[in-house]
Design brief:
This protein has 299 residues and is an alpha+beta fold. It is built from 5 helices and 11 strands. Strands 1, 2, 3, 4, 5, 6, 7, 8, 9, 10 and 11 form an 11-stranded antiparallel β-sheet that branches.
């Protein structure tokens, strides 16, 4: 077994991570804020517009904290075996346009899906003074060929797209240089920028970061359901179902629920973000929210 099961639950604290106003602005621009109307999202895209206070998009939390650590801590598998399967982001209070957090990371679960293994990596972002959790995220990684070790398989979710017509359907056009812009947030994986490498692994051209697609969806859901108020954001969870090419048009279908919304994102007829769940913040925005479970894979 190449996965280091003995490391489940072992917490690793990183160095304090700080961001400035311009970092929050860059992130917002990289997930489509201000496009096509530059005046539409000024609270997220400018810091000096008259009568408007700068705010950070809630999904900005996913790029805070720096590197997620060495793969060697997780197991002896190759990077080529790894797929980003899903992501959850939860906010316990709204992010500032600048600030500092202390990242704490740990391998929170490993699931045996037969052929493949599923790793769940949790990152908590702590207030450096109070040590309270500001935000948390769970990254779900599919490790191909590392299943069959007899571990917990974790039942698959019964999530299905509602049969009714979506309450909202929103189209957003990504730009041909979207991945080049998004990579400036810190993810410099050449799969998203180098045509030669993309072709080596089977893509006609570089693909868009899955977390960039997530950022587009999160921004549009917040805009559609909460008038772009970050205090409404509790948590958001998705499964990455198919790659997006920069320049593709994203169609987000949103079904309102009691606690928030279910959603899917498509490019044409292809679902690219599946099993989407959005949960509003608790009435007291300082109270923690429970992260929804990530969708499990059947393969």
């Amino acid at each position: 077994m190449a996965i280091h099961l003995q490391n489940i639950g072992k917490r690793s604290e990183g160095a304090p991570f700080s961001w400035e106003s311009k970092d929050a602005l860059l992130y917002a621009l990289s997930v489509g804020a201000g496009t096509p109307d530059p005046a539409a999202n000024l609270a997220f895209t400018t810091e000096n517009s008259r009568g408007i206070e700068q705010q950070a998009l809630p999904t900005f939390a996913v790029v805070l904290g720096g590197s997620s650590g060495s793969m060697k801590d997780l197991g002896g598998f190759k990077l080529s075996q790894v797929l980003h399967g899903g992501q959850t982001i939860a906010l316990h209070k709204s992010l500032g346009s600048s600030g500092t957090v202390v990242p704490v990371r740990f391998l929170s679960a490993v699931h045996d899906k037969g052929k493949n293994a599923i790793l769940e990596l949790t990152t908590e972002l702590l207030d450096p003074l109070t040590r309270e959790v500001v935000a948390s995220s769970i990254t779900q990684m599919v490790i191909r060929g590392e299943g069959g070790f007899g571990g917990d398989s974790r039942p698959s979710e019964n999530w299905e797209a509602p049969s009714s017509e979506a309450d909202f359907t929103v189209n957003q056009l990504t730009t041909p240089d979207q991945a080049l812009l998004y990579r400036l947030n810190g993810d410099r994986n050449p799969l998203h920028s180098d045509p030669a490498l993309a072709q080596m692994v089977g893509f006609a051209k570089p693909i868009l970061h899955g977390l960039c697609t997530l950022g587009f969806a999160g921004r549009m859901i917040l805009e559609t359901l909460a008038d772009s108020n970050p205090d409404d954001f509790g948590s958001l969870s998705v499964r990455f179902a198919a790659p997006v090419t920069p320049g593709d048009e994203l169609t987000t279908s949103i079904w309102k629920t009691e606690s928030g919304a279910s959603f899917q994102v498509r490019v044409g007829d292809t679902v690219v973000l599946d099993r989407g769940s959005y949960v509003r913040r608790a009435a007291n925005v300082q109270d923690p929210v429970q992260e929804p479970e990530l969708a499990s894979f059947t393969a």
